[in-house]
Hints:
By secondary structure, the protein is an alpha+beta fold. It has helices at about 15-20, 50-55, 70-85; strands spanning about 30-35, 40-45. About 30% of the residues lie in helices and about 10% in strands.
Amino acid sequence: xxxxxxxxxxxxxxxxxxxxxxxxxxxxxxxxxxxxxxxxxxxxxxxxxxxxxxxxxxxxxxxxxxxxxxxxxxxxxxxxxxxxxxx
Length: 87
């Protein structure tokens, strides 16, 4: 376990041992996910540029469209299952 502090500017220093173990360099973009009892930082992965034609075949969904809140809840639930081992 490592301990760090939040600066007056809201910045947090990720300890060197953790940066090295995850191969995070200066400038690494991180996604901050609110887990309720804490924050999970994950590296932002870069996606290849695509067009609608590239992905249109995967959009075959039938049913009532999901709201943004429902999609956010599903993503949060998936992250929590991964983070907490499905318990």
